């Protein structure tokens, strides 16, 4: 089973948040402050640790956008009667 790059990247981001939260658990500060630190730290770490997965996700999104633009152009030309005799 192969995960989608977007799912893999999202799970990686959530995992980073959980790991940082667990590392901050024994620190004697307010829970809300711990969670805010975990959010900020996981945001920064994702740029370093999840770069490959982020690039895979960007590639997947780019392919989907390119495919949709091609389909849209094909449909527009078919509706305008500019197709190559295909019915």
UniProtKB/TrEMBL annotation:
<feature type="transmembrane region" description="Helical">
    <location>
        <begin position="31"/>
        <end position="50"/>
    </location>
</feature>
<keyword id="KW-0812">Transmembrane</keyword>
<protein>
    <recommendedName>
        <fullName>DUF4229 domain-containing protein</fullName>
    </recommendedName>
</protein>
<dbReference type="Pfam" id="PF14012">
    <property type="entry name" value="DUF4229"/>
</dbReference>
<dbReference type="InterPro" id="IPR025323">
    <property type="entry name" value="DUF4229"/>
</dbReference>
<keyword id="KW-1133">Transmembrane helix</keyword>
<keyword id="KW-0472">Membrane</keyword>
<feature type="transmembrane region" description="Helical">
    <location>
        <begin position="7"/>
        <end position="25"/>
    </location>
</feature>
